[in-house]
Design goal:
3 domains; alpha/beta; 17 strands; 6-stranded mixed sheet; binds NADP nicotinamide-adenine-dinucleotide phosphate; globular; 17 helices
Amino acid sequence: MNINAKTVPLGVVGWPVTHSISPELHNRLIEKLGLNYFYSAYPVQPGAMPRALDGMRALGIRGLNVTIPHKEEAFRLCDRLDAYAAGIGAVNTVVNENGCLRGYNTDAPGFIACLRREGVSAAGKKAALLGAGGAARAVAVGLLQNGAAELRIINRTRERAERLASELAARFPGRVRAAANADGADLLVNATSVGMKNSETPFADFDRLGEGCVVCDIVYCPRETVFLRGAREAGLKTVGGIGMLVYQAALAFELFTGMAPGEEAVEELLRRVELKRSVALTGFMGCGKSAVGRELAQMCAAEFIDCDDYIVKKAGKPIPEIFAEVGEAGFRDMESRCIAELAGRSGAVIALGGGAVLRRENIDLLRENCRVVRIKTDVGKVLRNTAGDRSRPLLRGKTPEQVAELMALREPYYQNCDLTVDASKTDPRETACIILDKIAEMS
Ligand code: NAP
């Protein structure tokens, strides 16, 4: 990126704003399309939006994205509004046309574009929406404007749901109402903030939804919320919040620059956001998790963490000694505590110990922020990889038949992983390449 006197400034305003990934997304698009723009983050305190927007006019800042808590104030302060912003009552994108500030809302079309990418259409759906805040309002307008047959709004504070429903009913008569349940719905969207900072879920009655119901969460961090996990476990199709985040950014980018990024650039952004998350490798002892993990970390310039090494360092003693002192159960407790510490790391490759899958809560916790990849291999490779290794108490003195038996017993525990990669005929580098390709396909 070559910044010079002609570089056009863009940015995001919010409070706080330091966690925003918008600068990374927009600057990547600028770089990819070879444009002379630069996108930055501006922390704007509550109450300071009038001055921030005056500054935008005075400095000739071409475009700003607006995030919490300024979207409603930006709506009041803009000179012109697009149809989505006017219908939602909130602005997330401001474009400066020679001092005239035009306010847009790309959250609603961003959500619809994300559904479309998943092959889901709002048209004719019996939709239910959890939440009645700013984001829920955008999702509601997006769904109704794109042909949802009915929309039930369910919110902790019932009056807010009723207020939003009656406001929307004026524009979309007979299709929207406040409700107490989502029974029979064929599209369910969580637009509450529940699940963002805690392991709670705003909804658990997945068995009462319509058959084949699609369940979306617009919360994007963690990657898999407890809400989405519940839906997945109930056998329903799930859509996470990252797609909406990326599409609303791509639509804002087009408004700022007049250039549509195109599907390929959007797909690259989705992969980029996805690969920033950690990857946790699991599989039977000796399947090559550490060797593959090191290759993968090198290819992604990520930190590599071997969970067993982490435990040994914490305990100050080797694994056979830990087993001798506290037994396998004591070791597994120690391992779960270490996994809980590692699960929150971003951009790391974590090689888990062979038995980490035995506790379902370990994998559930990891799945919130990591892709959990199972490396599958055959008995021969396990025996070759572990020959002479004295740090594996569970394999000591075992015949190939006994190892095969132990492997078969472990098989059901891998059901909960994001994906499985067969490494019986590939070397660690090749396996790492396959994992990267598969993760990119999934994002
Ligand atoms: P908001 O205006 O503060 O609304 C929060 C909503 O969550 C309200 O409906 C609130 O219900 C509900 N809620 C909060 N705590 C709750 C609890 N403990 N139990 C039940 N309901 C609870 O926030 P927002 O701007 O709409 O944002 C909501 C979420 O959407 C955030 O997590 C945000 O990150 C996400 N978001 C994602 C994207 C994306 O691109 N993926 C875009 C925008 C927003 P009450 O009315 O009862 O308080």
